Amino acid sequence: MALIAAFYTFAEQTSGGLTLSPAVLVASLYVFALAAFLGYQVISRVPPLLHTPLMSATNAISGISLIGSLVIAGSRYEHHQTLASVLGCLAVTSAMINVTGGFLITDRMLKMFRKKETVKAEEKK
Amino acid sequence: MIFGQYFLEATYLIASCLFVMGLKSLSHPDTARRGMIMAAAGMAAALVGTLFHPEIHNYIWIVVGLIVGSSIGIPMAMVPMTAMPQRTALSHAFGALAASMVGLAEYVIHGAGLGPVKMGALGLEVMLGSLTVTGSLIAAGKLQEVIRGTPIMFKGQHYVNLALFLGMITCFVLWMINPASGIYFYTLVGLAFLFGVMLVIPIGSADMPVVMSLLNSYAGLSSAATGFVLGNNVLIIAGTLDGFSGFILSILMCRAMNRSITNVLFGGFGAVVATDTAAGGTMREVTLDDVAVQLAYANQVVFVPGYGMATAQAQHACRELGDLLEERGVSVKYGIHPVAGRMPGHMNVLLAEANVPYSSLYEMEQINPELSTTDVAVVIGANDVVNPDARDNPKSPIAGMPIIEVDRAKSVVVLKRGKGKGFSGLENPLFFKSVTGMLYGDAKSSLSNLVQAVQKV
């Protein structure tokens, strides 16, 4: 414990406000652990029938890294402005591909899973 | 905190809740669509909220990224369902690329100023992200058949991989000790790219369901690590959900093949073929008309599709035959093995696309008890998932893998392109059993011909 504490003191001394404070780190670990638990509960209830849509849905959702990319692409920096903006722009592009593509194709797939009655009714038309 | 920041955090909180609710709705096909629309709304809220982020000053790069991203993403959502596996592999690559780029940019901007905790998360993020990018691209290449689908192996491969892995760890540690020396960091990124390639090339296409799930998991965990670097909870939540979903799927896929993850990753399955099987004798070929009569007068018919159905695009012809039989009062069911196809749930999506109602799609555990009372089981381009050797022959390379026990049906019809062995190169004793009849030819045309033949009965 003392070692960890020393580690943090060192970290905070070297670099001011940028570093992760222990309180925030602990809170983040809580969020991570609870999300993992929740994810396990929720996802193990998804039937094999919907495993492909599940994969594209989680893919779309993890496109949320878009919000981190947006901030990087749009911020002003003292050094390496161009490089940071280009990397940010690349990240926005890739994340946006997953967000638009992921949600659209998930919806397209889910539209196809229909009840017997619905299929019959549509064929009569 | 000023008001703007509360607004921002509120949109993230809403997004997190909507994501969880969206995934929960996937537990049933009837609620799934509405749930995913909610999740998409959550994403939109987070996106709009972030556009008002106080640090954003310049919108040019953002607009460029959003437009280019959408104009690639939308066409990627229009691919035919048979191309779903390679599309999904590509989207794993893009997800991981986004996470890696964020990590790289953070290091470029802040350098050693990030502090050890964030740097650890950042290193993990970029390492996992980079190896997922190249790994997924190779997987997509194999699925698209740009790259040979069989395992690519060479002498000393395990040592090369081990050396690469140790190299990555060394760079990581050296970089943590000397945070300002970018050289270690960039070497780490380079090694991770290479490691991703090496990880996937020895894996055969038939094992792709596991690899896809595993890459899904890595991409998710990489996003979660981004959340730690940026101190952003919604990223941690979404990334963890994605990571765990991939992890659970890989376990399910491995269980469905009775193999461990290490065996899939390092086994090079399908490269060395042990033909140690009791299979022998002659295969009995049957004619279209025979099969048509059998089907038309059956009480229950079970279709068992495999990857061959996808390559032959036979799902629509299959549904037509199923409908025709149902009109004649035959009970028609579809039995789907968890690893049939090239990604989890592949066959379900293909059949759903062909208008098969989901109530006719049965999981392996549900269909197996029904097979003994089934008159005809029709195997369409599936091989290993119906190989009785897995159950009967403990020496078989696939021994212990749960199968769909079509050989318990009163009669089995196997639609197969030719007399050759299946993808894995294993001999299948099912084809030599007395109950089995072989109908050679392209699955799609065989099925369409069967439709016509049944109409004449």
Structure description:
The complex is a heterodimer of chains A (125) and B (457). Chain A has one domain. With 125 residues, chain A is mainly α. In chain A, α3 runs antiparallel to α5 and α4 (65-74) runs antiparallel to α5. Chain A is 78% helix and 0% strand. Chain A has six helices and no strands. Chain B folds into two domains: 79-266, no CATH class; 288-456, 3-Layer(aba) Sandwich (Rossmann fold). Chain B is built from 17 helices and six strands. In chain B, α1 runs antiparallel to α2 and α5 packs antiparallel against α8. Mean pLDDT of chain B is 90; it is low at 270-274. Classes of the chains: A mainly alpha (125), B alpha/beta (457). Chains A and B meet through α1, α2, α3, α4 and α5 of A and α1, α2, α3, α4 and α5 of B.
Order of helices and strands of chain B: HHHHHHHHHHHEHHEHEHEHEEH
Quickly give the structural class of chain B.
alpha/beta
Give, in spatial order, the strands making up the sheet with the most strands of chain B.
3-2-1-4-5-6
Instruction: Give the distance, in angstroms, between the N- and C-terminal Cα atoms of chain B.
Output: 78 Å
* Total number of beta strands of chain B: 6
| SS element count, helices of chain A | 6
Mean pLDDT of chain A: 84
User: What general form of chain B does the structure show?
Assistant: globular
In N-to-C order, the SSE pattern of chain A is: HHHHHH
- How much of the sequence lies in strands of chain A comes to under 5%
So what's the overall shape of chain A? Answer: flat
Instruction: Please give the domain count of chain A.
Output: 1
